[in-house]
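Quick start: what a row looks like.
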Amino acid sequence: MRAMNADVGILGGGLSGLSLAALLGRDAEVLEATDTPGGLARTFGRNGFLSDIGGHIMFSKDQEVLDLMVAALGDNVAKRRRNNKILYQGRYVKYPFENGLDALPKEDAYDCLISFLQNDAKPPPHANFEEWMYFTLGRGITDRYLLPYNRKIWKRDPKQMGTEWVERVPRPPLEDVVKSAIGIETEGYLHQLYFHYPIHGGIESLPRAFAAQARARGHRVVTGCRVEKIRRSAGGWVVNDEREYRHLVTTMPILPFLLTLADVPGPVMEAARKLEYNSLRVVMLGIDRREGLDELTAAYVPDPALLAHRVCFNNAFSPELAPPGCASLQCEITTNPGDGVFELDDDTLAARVHAELVSVGILRATDRVVEQMVQRERFAYVVYDLGYAARVKLIADYLASLGMHAAGRFAEYRYINMDACIRRTLDLSRELDRG
């Protein structure tokens, strides 16, 4: 009889897989295809310039989860104040947009306010995301910011998107919108006002810390191990004909995971193939100036003429993400095959992004780019198209029928942040430890 490698096999060494291993009391082994665990919570760079794959910060309404993340980092963490803006028609508007209406021309601010107060959009239930935006925030705010920004980041018409995820775009209190329109300072979502971030090493320090905790518990993190085949055994599951586990947890993207299984029902596989997602390009620019490039944490860019939908000023996250006197900028671009951006080579993409940042005044023409890198990620954003809910339920029900567990953004196929991923793994660890 084959000896069990571990009670629990965890497929995928991203933040979800590593945090689950760190939290589990029973014996576990993590299998990660790449040489560097962390998934989307990785950090890249060279010559002292670092950038994350997307703007990752640690904040949450879930205090238990926030405490877990902060504690995992030990002394390597600092608390900072978030200062995000929206670059709208040449001016910076406080984020979220409805909290910065006083920065708009008076006529625009009035239109945003009156259409919010006298909103005649049809009430729920909503068939699509566009209808939800108009009902929730009114015509003025929706037309000026929400529609162009969401068209840009999702690369789809919001009429073709569902509303299963809109709790991430909460309805602001009426009093906050009125205050912002007349110039009274308001902060909106207070749980986002401050955040924690590693002092050294970028956000990858967090999954690394969880990996260290997992190893300290006696669990194993195996890198360079691509999962290609999974089959049942008398005692549980066999992976790649060489490793056996009583329980299996997948944090892998759904379709690649299902392709490792034999005899997946046709409707389930068809549903997985129809799930939509956006890929990501992250352009990191190292600039020979720091002054003025560490005041904002991020700028959201709804202008469709510019490639990046968000620019993060990495030095505001941690001064150690660039050498002294220099700055690191992180420019995020969603993309899909055939859109003209997906096919660009790294140098062409970085040069275009740099030119666009100069054109809108984020960078000066005299600023010198001393380092640049482009990171490419296939799976970055889960897209909630109109067929999303039925497809995901069909797949989730199938995995449950097999006795398998899924955890994480692309395994569960939910657009969730780091804190929600860890809440899932915390709950799952308790369930598995009880079983």
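That is the whole record. Residues 97-188 form one domain. The first strand starts at residue 6 and ends at 11.
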